[in-house]
Amino acid sequence: MDDLARWIQESELPPGDRLPAEADLALQFSVHRLTVRQALAELARAGTIRTVHGRGSFVAERPFRFRVTSDVPSIVALMRDRGMTVTQTLVGSTVVGRDDLPEPRDLADDKLLRLDTVLAVDGQPWSRASTWLSQARFGPVAAVWTPMTSLTGLLNEAYGIVVRRAWRRYSAERATAEDAAALGVAAGSPLLVQAGLNTDSGGQPLLQVVRRSRGDRLEYEVSL
Amino acid sequence: MDDLARWIQESELPPGDRLPAEADLALQFSVHRLTVRQALAELARAGTIRTVHGRGSFVAERPFRFRVTSDVPSIVALMRDRGMTVTQTLVGSTVVGRDDLPEPRDLADDKLLRLDTVLAVDGQPWSRASTWLSQARFGPVAAVWTPMTSLTGLLNEAYGIVVRRAWRRYSAERATAEDAAALGVAAGSPLLVQAGLNTDSGGQPLLQVVRRSRGDRLEYEVSL
DNA sequence: TAGTGGTCTAGACCACCGG
DNA sequence: CGGTGGTCTAGACCACTAT
């Protein structure tokens, strides 16, 4: 792998260029094709290259991460302002007990509505989120959901609520098999996980959310 | 891999237990050992198991992440209060130009001191950080650094400065080969990357920092 | 259809760990 | 020392992509 990485470095292939075929690399380095494959797979995991079945291996572009700042009211609205096509598909809507809520459980209700959504930008999956809200108060939300819905916007328009962020927690996790299927990445790839609580303008807990995003697609910025 | 994952699930092995040897698994599933190895490697990347040369593969413990909150003045001090042995080893100290600073460049100086440190807890590496400060003002810092030094504490004691956080940026990246070597993880593992600016109590930019932490070891929490 | 990567069996030998 | 995982060669066949 080190030899191959060095070779790619030294040959100064620009991002997007195709590498020689695995069989050719095997000849070039006088090793078996499986050995080449193992090295290529490791480089792909490290993000140096990207391999496509039937086409070849390509030098990876440097990832560009969309920056989500904490001072905008709605992230979806922010992205749409920048000309991106943003959809949020509802993939699940269930009524759950309070014990389904991640710690710390800041919502008081015993029955909660949990919305599972997948956010896609320009057709590409970016993140999946689970949102918990009071079932008694917001039960009808699921029925009116469309891919164009922004929860922040919906709460504002339908309930007259102005949402405020209370706390946020950030961690990096490996993509599970489920994440991998939903987000189009390999299992084990880095995900940026944001958990948090939103309140209304009076500070009353409104909703908790956990968002699992592709690490190569976005980052969060907060002012303190 | 799916078969193997299901088998582990169904056999309900508790975390820490050893799986059968690769050769045994190959017999059990009637496949070649290499096929078993590929499945095990994928499970290890997904975090389900952990494999040790010469000993075997073990069901992984659920990762426990230390929570770093934004309301404490010094993270190192916080950890020590909780009885952890925290060291910060200075692995590099260089004078660099302003262009070495990551964007956005909030420090005005043309010559900056860059400190590269590795934070270890109870002997285990947790994160590596690069810190940029004014060379003119803080040049002597590198000379007095010891593994017990906390930069926040040092600035307070030696300069009478009370440090304040201005902004933070969070992203998830794959561990590079260098990260992997310094942090004891596999290349490509998820890292939680925090970049940020600290000011003095008057709001004057003091230092910028980029900290790359093992995703399985810590998480950040901020109140908004 | 030719060329690419993806998966698999077969078997050898090496490196590490613990008793 | 025996048992474990780590690396490698050899070769077959399958699946996907572009022409």
Give a brief description.
2 copies of one chain form a homodimer. Chain A is α+β, with helices and mostly antiparallel strands.
Describe this structure in words.
2 copies of one chain form a homodimer. Chain A is of the alpha+beta class. Chain A has 7 helices and 10 strands. In chain A, the strands form 3 sheets. Chain A has a 6-stranded antiparallel beta sheet with strand order 4-5-6-9-8-7. In chain A, a hairpin with a 3-residue loop joins strand 1 and strand 2 (56-59). In chain A, helix 2 packs across helix 3. The longest helix of chain A is centred in the N-terminal third of the chain and has 14 residues, at 33-46. Chain A is elongated and about 70 Å long. Chains A and B meet through helix 3, strand 7, strand 8 and strand 10 of A and helix 3, strand 7, strand 8 and strand 10 of B. Chain A binds a DNA duplex (19 and 19 nucleotides) through helix 3.
- Compressed to H and E, one letter per element, the order of chain A equals HHHEEEHEEEHHEHEEE
Care to count the β-strands of chain A?
A: 10
Number of distinct helices of chain A: 7
Which structural class should the secondary elements of chain A be placed in?
alpha+beta
What percent of residues of chain A adopt helix (DSSP H or I)? 25-40%
The assembly state of the depicted protein chains is homodimer
In angstroms, what is the radius of gyration of chain A? 22 Å
DSSP strand content of chain A: 35-45%
**Spatial sequence of strands, sheet with the most strands of chain A:** 4-5-6-9-8-7
